[in-house]
Amino acid sequence: MELGLGDKVVVVCGASRGIGFAAAELFAAEGAELVIVSRSASSVNAAADALRARGASVHGIVADLAAADGPAHVVDGVMRLHGRADVLVTNTGGPVTGSALGHDWSAWQAASELLLRSAVELTRAFVPGMQARRWGRVIGITSIAVKKPVPSLVLSNSLRAAVTGYFRTLADEVAPDGVTVNTVLPGYTATERLDELATATTQRTGVAREAVFDRWRAETPVARLGTPQEVAAAIAFLASAHAGFITGQALCVDGGASRTLL
Ligand code: NAD
Protein backbone atom coordinates (compact mmCIF):
# COMPACT_ATOMS: atom_id res chain seq x y z
CA MET A 1 0.00 0.00 0.00
CA GLU A 2 1.39 3.40 -0.92
CA LEU A 3 1.28 5.81 1.98
CA GLY A 4 0.68 8.93 -0.10
CA LEU A 5 3.55 10.76 1.58
CA GLY A 6 5.74 11.44 -1.47
CA ASP A 7 5.37 15.22 -1.20
CA LYS A 8 5.39 15.41 2.60
CA VAL A 9 8.04 16.62 5.02
CA VAL A 10 8.38 13.93 7.67
CA VAL A 11 10.30 14.56 10.90
CA VAL A 12 11.25 11.46 12.88
CA CYS A 13 12.84 12.01 16.30
CA GLY A 14 15.05 9.44 18.00
CA ALA A 15 15.77 7.99 14.59
CA SER A 16 19.38 6.82 14.70
CA ARG A 17 18.41 3.30 15.79
CA GLY A 18 15.56 1.09 16.97
CA ILE A 19 11.94 1.95 16.30
CA GLY A 20 12.67 5.49 15.08
CA PHE A 21 15.17 4.28 12.51
CA ALA A 22 12.81 1.56 11.31
CA ALA A 23 10.10 4.21 10.84
CA ALA A 24 12.55 6.43 8.95
CA GLU A 25 13.31 3.51 6.62
CA LEU A 26 9.62 3.18 5.72
CA PHE A 27 9.18 6.91 5.14
CA ALA A 28 12.34 6.96 3.04
CA ALA A 29 11.00 4.13 0.88
CA GLU A 30 7.88 6.27 0.26
CA GLY A 31 9.97 9.11 -1.14
CA ALA A 32 9.11 11.55 1.67
CA GLU A 33 11.35 14.54 2.44
CA LEU A 34 12.79 13.09 5.59
CA VAL A 35 14.43 14.77 8.57
CA ILE A 36 15.87 12.52 11.26
CA VAL A 37 16.89 13.66 14.72
CA SER A 38 19.13 12.14 17.33
CA ARG A 39 21.72 13.13 19.92
CA SER A 40 25.14 12.35 18.48
CA ALA A 41 26.51 13.54 15.16
CA SER A 42 28.14 10.20 14.44
CA SER A 43 24.93 8.20 14.90
CA VAL A 44 22.77 10.72 12.99
CA ASN A 45 25.25 10.78 10.11
CA ALA A 46 25.50 6.99 10.01
CA ALA A 47 21.71 6.63 9.94
CA ALA A 48 21.33 9.34 7.29
CA ASP A 49 24.05 7.76 5.13
CA ALA A 50 22.36 4.36 5.37
CA LEU A 51 19.05 5.88 4.25
CA ARG A 52 20.68 7.91 1.46
CA ALA A 53 22.40 4.80 0.17
CA ARG A 54 18.89 3.50 -0.60
CA GLY A 55 18.01 6.68 -2.49
CA ALA A 56 16.28 8.58 0.30
CA SER A 57 16.11 12.36 0.54
CA VAL A 58 17.15 12.82 4.13
CA HIS A 59 18.67 15.48 6.38
CA GLY A 60 20.00 14.77 9.85
CA ILE A 61 19.68 17.15 12.82
CA VAL A 62 21.80 16.62 15.91
CA ALA A 63 19.83 17.61 19.01
CA ASP A 64 19.37 16.42 22.55
CA LEU A 65 15.61 16.61 22.98
CA ALA A 66 16.00 16.48 26.75
CA ALA A 67 18.09 19.68 26.73
CA ALA A 68 16.47 23.07 27.22
CA ASP A 69 17.28 24.21 23.68
CA GLY A 70 16.92 20.79 22.00
CA PRO A 71 13.37 21.04 20.62
CA ALA A 72 13.94 24.65 19.40
CA HIS A 73 17.09 23.51 17.62
CA VAL A 74 15.06 20.86 15.76
CA VAL A 75 12.36 23.36 14.85
CA ASP A 76 14.94 25.87 13.55
CA GLY A 77 16.63 23.18 11.47
CA VAL A 78 13.42 21.86 9.92
CA MET A 79 12.10 25.35 9.16
CA ARG A 80 15.40 26.32 7.53
CA LEU A 81 15.44 23.14 5.43
CA HIS A 82 11.78 22.86 4.42
CA GLY A 83 9.74 25.66 6.01
CA ARG A 84 7.28 23.13 7.45
CA ALA A 85 6.67 19.68 8.88
CA ASP A 86 3.70 17.66 7.63
CA VAL A 87 4.32 14.56 9.72
CA LEU A 88 5.90 14.63 13.19
CA VAL A 89 6.96 11.48 15.02
CA THR A 90 7.90 12.32 18.61
CA ASN A 91 10.31 9.79 20.07
CA THR A 92 13.34 9.65 22.35
CA GLY A 93 15.03 7.00 24.40
CA GLY A 94 13.27 5.83 27.54
CA PRO A 95 13.97 7.23 31.03
CA VAL A 96 16.11 5.50 33.63
CA THR A 97 14.74 2.54 35.57
CA GLY A 98 13.80 2.75 39.24
CA SER A 99 11.12 2.19 41.87
CA ALA A 100 8.29 4.53 42.84
CA LEU A 101 10.15 5.92 45.87
CA GLY A 102 13.57 5.58 44.30
CA HIS A 103 13.95 8.85 42.40
CA ASP A 104 14.57 12.34 43.72
CA TRP A 105 12.83 15.25 42.05
CA SER A 106 15.73 15.98 39.71
CA ALA A 107 15.22 12.54 38.12
CA TRP A 108 11.50 13.24 37.71
CA GLN A 109 12.34 16.58 36.13
CA ALA A 110 14.85 14.99 33.74
CA ALA A 111 12.29 12.38 32.67
CA SER A 112 9.66 15.10 32.18
CA GLU A 113 12.02 17.05 29.98
CA LEU A 114 12.92 13.96 27.95
CA LEU A 115 9.39 12.66 27.40
CA LEU A 116 6.82 15.38 28.06
CA ARG A 117 8.51 18.68 27.31
CA SER A 118 9.99 17.43 24.04
CA ALA A 119 6.54 16.33 22.84
CA VAL A 120 4.88 19.57 23.96
CA GLU A 121 7.53 21.90 22.49
CA LEU A 122 7.71 20.13 19.14
CA THR A 123 3.95 19.98 18.65
CA ARG A 124 3.48 23.58 19.76
CA ALA A 125 5.97 24.61 17.08
CA PHE A 126 4.86 22.39 14.18
CA VAL A 127 1.11 21.82 14.59
CA PRO A 128 -0.10 25.40 13.91
CA GLY A 129 1.43 25.18 10.42
CA MET A 130 -0.29 21.83 9.85
CA GLN A 131 -3.60 23.41 10.88
CA ALA A 132 -3.07 26.33 8.53
CA ARG A 133 -2.38 23.92 5.63
CA ARG A 134 -5.35 21.75 6.69
CA TRP A 135 -3.28 18.54 6.79
CA GLY A 136 -0.98 17.03 9.34
CA ARG A 137 -0.08 13.91 11.25
CA VAL A 138 1.39 13.65 14.76
CA ILE A 139 2.41 10.26 16.08
CA GLY A 140 3.79 10.03 19.61
CA ILE A 141 5.77 6.95 20.58
CA THR A 142 4.94 6.01 24.16
CA SER A 143 4.87 2.51 25.69
CA ILE A 144 2.75 -0.43 26.72
CA ALA A 145 3.34 1.12 30.18
CA VAL A 146 0.36 3.37 29.44
CA LYS A 147 -1.93 0.32 29.55
CA LYS A 148 -0.07 -1.75 32.12
CA PRO A 149 2.62 -0.29 34.40
CA VAL A 150 6.00 -2.00 33.89
CA PRO A 151 7.82 -2.96 37.14
CA SER A 152 10.75 -0.67 38.05
CA LEU A 153 9.90 1.85 35.35
CA VAL A 154 7.97 4.38 37.42
CA LEU A 155 9.25 7.34 35.39
CA SER A 156 8.06 5.77 32.14
CA ASN A 157 4.77 4.58 33.68
CA SER A 158 4.01 8.09 34.95
CA LEU A 159 5.33 10.36 32.21
CA ARG A 160 3.94 8.30 29.31
CA ALA A 161 0.51 8.74 30.88
CA ALA A 162 1.05 12.50 30.94
CA VAL A 163 2.14 12.47 27.30
CA THR A 164 -0.97 10.45 26.39
CA GLY A 165 -3.21 12.96 28.16
CA TYR A 166 -1.54 15.80 26.28
CA PHE A 167 -1.86 14.14 22.88
CA ARG A 168 -5.46 13.06 23.51
CA THR A 169 -6.42 16.65 24.33
CA LEU A 170 -4.51 18.00 21.33
CA ALA A 171 -6.23 15.45 19.06
CA ASP A 172 -9.66 16.89 19.85
CA GLU A 173 -8.52 20.47 19.41
CA VAL A 174 -6.91 20.09 15.97
CA ALA A 175 -9.14 17.40 14.41
CA PRO A 176 -11.37 19.94 12.59
CA ASP A 177 -8.27 21.30 10.84
CA GLY A 178 -7.28 18.01 9.19
CA VAL A 179 -4.58 17.15 11.71
CA THR A 180 -4.63 13.73 13.35
CA VAL A 181 -2.84 12.95 16.61
CA ASN A 182 -2.28 9.38 17.76
CA THR A 183 0.12 7.47 19.98
CA VAL A 184 1.80 4.12 19.35
CA LEU A 185 2.52 1.90 22.35
CA PRO A 186 5.30 -0.59 21.69
CA GLY A 187 5.39 -3.78 23.70
CA TYR A 188 8.60 -5.75 24.18
CA THR A 189 10.48 -4.97 20.98
CA ALA A 190 13.95 -6.22 20.08
CA THR A 191 16.03 -3.02 20.14
CA GLU A 192 19.09 -1.80 21.99
CA ARG A 193 16.76 -0.19 24.54
CA LEU A 194 15.41 -3.62 25.45
CA ASP A 195 18.96 -4.99 25.72
CA GLU A 196 19.74 -2.16 28.14
CA LEU A 197 16.59 -2.92 30.18
CA ALA A 198 17.61 -6.60 30.34
CA THR A 199 21.02 -5.60 31.67
CA ALA A 200 19.44 -3.31 34.29
CA THR A 201 17.01 -6.07 35.33
CA THR A 202 19.80 -8.62 35.65
CA GLN A 203 21.85 -6.22 37.78
CA ARG A 204 18.87 -5.37 39.99
CA THR A 205 17.44 -8.85 40.50
CA GLY A 206 20.25 -11.29 39.76
CA VAL A 207 17.97 -13.08 37.30
CA ALA A 208 19.93 -14.42 34.31
CA ARG A 209 19.71 -12.33 31.17
CA GLU A 210 18.09 -15.05 29.02
CA ALA A 211 15.52 -15.67 31.76
CA VAL A 212 14.58 -11.97 31.61
CA PHE A 213 13.94 -12.27 27.87
CA ASP A 214 12.02 -15.53 28.46
CA ARG A 215 9.75 -13.72 30.92
CA TRP A 216 9.06 -10.94 28.42
CA ARG A 217 8.20 -13.53 25.75
CA ALA A 218 5.96 -15.35 28.21
CA GLU A 219 4.09 -12.08 28.94
CA THR A 220 3.44 -11.68 25.22
CA PRO A 221 0.66 -13.87 23.75
CA VAL A 222 2.45 -14.20 20.38
CA ALA A 223 5.33 -15.69 22.44
CA ARG A 224 8.12 -13.64 20.90
CA LEU A 225 9.52 -10.12 20.93
CA GLY A 226 8.30 -7.63 18.37
CA THR A 227 10.58 -6.21 15.72
CA PRO A 228 11.21 -2.48 15.25
CA GLN A 229 9.81 -2.90 11.72
CA GLU A 230 6.48 -4.14 13.09
CA VAL A 231 6.13 -1.03 15.26
CA ALA A 232 7.28 1.16 12.38
CA ALA A 233 4.56 -0.25 10.12
CA ALA A 234 1.90 1.04 12.54
CA ILE A 235 3.59 4.46 12.70
CA ALA A 236 3.74 4.67 8.91
CA PHE A 237 0.08 3.73 8.50
CA LEU A 238 -1.04 6.36 11.03
CA ALA A 239 1.04 8.91 9.12
CA SER A 240 -0.40 7.90 5.77
CA ALA A 241 -3.03 9.53 3.61
CA HIS A 242 -5.30 6.55 4.43
CA ALA A 243 -5.49 7.25 8.16
CA GLY A 244 -7.30 10.60 8.11
CA PHE A 245 -10.30 9.22 10.05
CA ILE A 246 -8.18 7.81 12.88
CA THR A 247 -7.35 10.28 15.62
CA GLY A 248 -7.04 10.37 19.41
CA GLN A 249 -6.08 6.69 19.50
CA ALA A 250 -3.45 4.87 21.54
CA LEU A 251 -2.46 1.87 19.42
CA CYS A 252 -0.71 -1.05 21.11
CA VAL A 253 1.81 -2.89 18.95
CA ASP A 254 2.63 -5.46 21.59
CA GLY A 255 1.81 -8.98 20.44
CA GLY A 256 -1.29 -8.89 22.65
CA ALA A 257 0.63 -8.19 25.86
CA SER A 258 -1.59 -5.39 27.15
CA ARG A 259 -4.53 -7.84 27.54
CA THR A 260 -7.11 -5.07 27.91
CA LEU A 261 -10.68 -5.19 26.58
CA LEU A 262 -10.41 -1.75 24.98
P1 NAD B 1 16.29 3.05 21.57
O1 NAD B 1 16.88 3.47 22.87
O2 NAD B 1 16.82 1.81 20.91
O3 NAD B 1 16.40 4.24 20.50
C1 NAD B 1 16.08 5.56 20.92
C2 NAD B 1 16.50 6.56 19.87
O4 NAD B 1 16.28 7.86 20.42
C3 NAD B 1 17.98 6.51 19.50
O5 NAD B 1 18.13 6.90 18.17
C4 NAD B 1 18.59 7.53 20.46
O6 NAD B 1 19.82 8.04 19.99
C5 NAD B 1 17.51 8.59 20.44
N1 NAD B 1 17.50 9.42 21.63
C6 NAD B 1 17.58 8.99 22.91
N2 NAD B 1 17.56 10.04 23.75
C7 NAD B 1 17.46 11.15 22.97
C8 NAD B 1 17.42 12.54 23.25
N3 NAD B 1 17.48 13.00 24.50
N4 NAD B 1 17.33 13.40 22.22
C9 NAD B 1 17.28 12.95 20.94
N5 NAD B 1 17.33 11.65 20.61
C10 NAD B 1 17.41 10.76 21.63
O7 NAD B 1 14.73 2.93 21.84
P2 NAD B 1 13.60 2.05 21.08
O8 NAD B 1 13.60 0.68 21.63
O9 NAD B 1 13.70 2.27 19.61
O10 NAD B 1 12.28 2.73 21.66
C11 NAD B 1 11.79 3.96 21.24
C12 NAD B 1 10.88 4.48 22.35
O11 NAD B 1 9.88 3.49 22.62
C13 NAD B 1 11.64 4.73 23.66
O12 NAD B 1 11.09 5.84 24.31
C14 NAD B 1 11.36 3.46 24.45
O13 NAD B 1 11.45 3.67 25.84
C15 NAD B 1 9.93 3.15 24.00
N6 NAD B 1 9.60 1.75 24.19
C16 NAD B 1 10.42 0.77 23.73
C17 NAD B 1 10.09 -0.55 23.98
C18 NAD B 1 10.98 -1.68 23.53
O14 NAD B 1 10.72 -2.83 23.92
N7 NAD B 1 12.00 -1.43 22.70
C19 NAD B 1 8.92 -0.86 24.68
C20 NAD B 1 8.10 0.17 25.13
C21 NAD B 1 8.45 1.49 24.88
Brief digest:
This protein is of the alpha/beta class and 262 residues long. It has helices at 18-29, 41-52, 70-82, 105-133, 154-174, 192-205, 209-218, 228-239; strands at 9-12, 33-38, 57-62, 87-90, 136-141, 179-186, 250-253. The longest helix is centred in the middle third of the chain and has 29 residues, at 105-133.
Key traits:
2 domains, Rossmann fold, binds nicotinamide-adenine-dinucleotide, 7-stranded parallel β-sheet, about 260 residues, alpha/beta
For the sheet with most strands, the description reads: 7 strands, parallel
Enumerate the strands of the largest sheet in spatial order, edge to edge or round the barrel.
Answer: 3-2-1-4-5-6-7
CATH superfamily of the largest domain: NAD(P)-binding Rossmann-like Domain
The CATH top-level class label of the largest domain: Alpha Beta
Percent of residues in helices comes to 40-55%
Q: Write down the overall mean pLDDT.
A: 97
Q: What is the CATH topology descriptor of the largest domain?
A: Rossmann fold
Q: What general outline do the C-alpha atoms trace?
A: globular
Q: How is the secondary structure organized here?
A:
Blueprint: E1 9-12, H1 18-29, E2 33-38, H2 41-52, E3 57-62, H3 70-82, E4 87-90, H4 105-133, E5 136-141, H5 154-174, E6 179-186, H6 192-205, H7 209-218, H8 228-239, E7 250-253
Parallel strand pairs: 1-2, 1-4, 2-3, 4-5, 5-6, 6-7
The structure holds nicotinamide-adenine-dinucleotide.
Nicotinamide-adenine-dinucleotide (NAD) is lined by residues 14-20, 37-39, 43, 64-66, 91-94, 114, 141, 143-144, 186, 188-189, 191-194.
